[in-house]
Write a structure and sequence with these properties.
The chain folds into 3 domains: about 5-190, Thiamin diphosphate (ThDP)-binding fold, Pyr/PP domains (Rossmann fold, 3-Layer(aba) Sandwich), CATH 3.40.50.970; about 200-355, TPP-binding domain (Rossmann fold, 3-Layer(aba) Sandwich), CATH 3.40.50; about 370-565, Thiamin diphosphate (ThDP)-binding fold, Pyr/PP domains (Rossmann fold, 3-Layer(aba) Sandwich), CATH 3.40.50. It has 22 helices and 20 strands. A 6-stranded parallel beta sheet has the order 3-2-4-5-7-6, sandwiched between helices. The protein has a 6-stranded parallel beta sheet with strand order 11-10-9-12-13-14, sandwiched between helices. A 6-stranded parallel beta sheet has the order 16-15-17-18-20-19, sandwiched between helices.
Length: about 575
């Protein structure tokens, strides 16, 4: 009797390939061309540790994959069906692309026999559509191509500067069948380098020499340190040489706020003093975007020396002239320069560091004057203080929104230190509407950690539908706090500052987010008294389901640093 062959289809091969990459969740919405993939998950995938997570909108699914990647430092996978599903992934993919987040974007394509026939959802050039917001695009038509295609997109997503990549699979490939033994699938260590290249000793010595000769050195830690997981080396190096460190928003958590070298975030508080006064700047994995005032005066000095380290050579010298450029993974660079620094004498005191520490303390005292007020309607500074003080030590914090995000950034480092990979904000694109989806992705990635977000009423409405997804998944200790000022607050500030208070399309109608949340199955509560915020947060934490706290705040002028950036045309 002939032995029965084990026949598999393209859906089976795709899921097997994802399992080799240790993928746990696929975030998206089902579509007809994906039936074979879903059937593989149903028949045997869940037993092997992989599952789909259905969302109510593809944009939210992409944001969730983005959050998963930010929290785990592993690529997230999102998908949408051919045509409209793919187009609705675009906003979430764009936000991840702008922040250098590794993501696999999976879309099907109609069967080849229907090409150019105006079939349902067909005739869309998806590769061209995604090209501006993905690092690499791959399209395949046969089952044999699936393993190598998955390997290529993961290699591209994780090597060099990480970013989203696109994998388009024609329905033909999903429906093809082969004997399992005919489709070999390699492990990651067989097709890509998992180790980072070393930096030449000459460059390390040059960089260290420039720093040691500086009177007012400054380190700026960006997202490249987060992605490289170089936070331990950064803190040890900075403390060894008594160099102050400020982070970009993508670098929040790469040095503890309790460290003697910690200064704060860029273009904020003491950073407004350190940036222009530093004579040498060591820029680690940062792009000098609008968050860093594009490297321009008066926030920086054209005369200061610049050592720029980045995994992507195209970033080095792009915004500011450099003294020394080093193409390297930030952790690898920090490991080597720390080893070299320890050959010399440890620095015990720094007047520059002490001076900046006093500046930081003065800044904190200034902000706290408003953050401690009992005014009604509630001041946004007070809301931020209550939330940040309430959060668990290892909580994941999501900063979503326009004006309230600025107030959160002011205080993000005042209270409990932010652990690495625990601060999520769509920085580069300035994207709104991430809170619910980021919350779901982060909670699935770290189910034992508290996940809490602050958003504006405008931004929260953008993906409010996926509160149902959070409820369906049974997520708890997931808290969404809304600063509800019935306005597009940042734009209202702009109209106040620059167009003589000609307010148009910036005021929003009153809305009860708590009742809306309850309709989705969440815990909901409205807060109007600042002294009730803490107890409301406690009730939300213990609700046993996702919670929405609708806090009625007053519209307030955005922080001074943002005003200055606006005056430069950055906002």
């Amino acid at each position: 009797m002939e032995e029965k062959k084990n026949v598999i289809n393209g859906g089976d091969v795709l899921i097997k390939s994802f399992l080799q990459e240790d993928i746990k969740y696929l975030f998206g919405i089902i579509g007809g061309q994906f039936l074979a993939m879903f059937d593989a998950v149903y028949k045997w995938g869940r037993e092997k540790g992989i599952d789909t997570v259905m969302f109510r909108h593809e944009q939210a699914a992409a944001h969730a994959a983005d959050a998963w990647a930010r929290v785990t430092n592993k690529p997230g996978v999102c998908f949408g069906t051919v045509g409209p599903g793919a187009t609705q992934l675009v906003p979430g993919v764009g936000a991840a692309w702008s922040d250098n987040i590794p993501m696999i974007v999976l879309v099907p394509q109609v069967n080849s026999k229907f090409a150019d026939s105006f079939t349902l959802q067909g005739n869309l050039d998806q590769l061209t559509m995604f090209k501006p917001i993905t690092k690499y695009q791959k399209s395949i038509r046969t089952i044999e191509e699936i393993p190598s295609a998955v390997q290529k997109v993961f290699r591209e997503a994780t090597s060099g500067r990480p970013r989203p990549v696109l994998l388009e699979i024609y329905e033909d490939a999903f429906l093809n069948e082969k004997e399992e033994s005919e489709i070999p699938i390699m492990s990651p260590d067989q097709y890509r380098c998992l180790e980072k290249p070393a930096v030449s000793n000459d460059l390390i010595k040059k960089a260290l020499d420039i720093l040691l000769k500086a009177e007012k050195p400054l380190i700026v830690s960006g997202g490249g340190v987060s992605r490289a997981e170089g936070w331990n080396e950064l803190q040890e190096f900075a403390e060894y040489l008594k160099i102050p460190v400020m982070t970009t928003l993508m670098g929040v958590g790469t040095i503890s706020s309790k460290s003697e070298s910690f200064l704060g975030t860029t273009i904020n508080g003491p950073g407004l003093k350190a940036g222009p006064e530093a004579d040498v700047v060591l820029a680690l994995g940062c792009k000098f975007t609008y968050i860093m005032a594009h490297g321009e005066e008066p926030f920086w000095s054209n005369s200061q020396k610049m050592i720029q380290v980045d995994i992507d050579p195209s970033i080095i010298g792009r915004a500011k002239p450099i003294t020394l450029g080093i193409v390297s993974d930030c952790k690898q660079f920090l490991m080597q320069i720390l080893e070299e620094a320890k050959k010399g004498q440890k620095i015990e005191q720094s007047e520059w560091l002490n001076e900046l520490a006093k500046s930081r303390q003065n800044y904190i005292e200034t902000i706290m004057k408003k953050a401690t007020r009992d005014k009604i309607p509630i001041l946004p500074q007070r809301l931020v203080k209550e939330v940040l003080e309430f959060m668990d030590e290892d909580a994941i914090f999501i900063n979503d929104g326009g004006d309230i995000a600025c107030f959160s950034i002011e205080q993000i480092n005042f209270y409990k230190p932010r652990p690495p990979l625990s601060f999520l904000q769509a920085v580069g694109m300035g994207h709104l509407g991430t809170s619910v989806a980021y919350g779901i992705g982060a909670k699935l990635a770290k189910p034992d950690k508290q996940v809490i977000s602050i958003s504006g009423d405008g931004s929260f409405m953008m993906n409010i539908q996926d509160l149902e997804t959070a409820v369906r998944l049974g997520l708890s200790n997931l808290i969404f706090v809304i600063a509800n000022n019935s306005a597009w607050g940042m734009l209202k500030s702009g109209q106040k500052m620059y167009v003589s208070k000609h307010y148009i399309d910036v005021d929003l109608p009153a809305f009860d987010f708590a009742k809306c949340a309850e309709g989705f199955g969440c815990y909901g509560e409205v807060v109007t008294d600042p002294n009730e915020i803490r107890s409301a947060l406690e009730r939300a934490k213990n609700a046993g389901k996702p919670a929405v706290i609708d806090v009625k705040t007053i519209w307030a002028q955005i922080p001074d640093a943002t005003k200055l950036m606006g005056s430069m045309g950055i906002l």
